[in-house]
Amino acid sequence: DYYQLLGVARDAGAEDIKKAYRRLARKYHPDVSKEADAAARMSEVNEAYAVLSDAERRAAYDAIGQGRRAGERFT
Question: Are 67 and 25 in contact (CB under 8 A)?
Answer without folding.
Answer: no
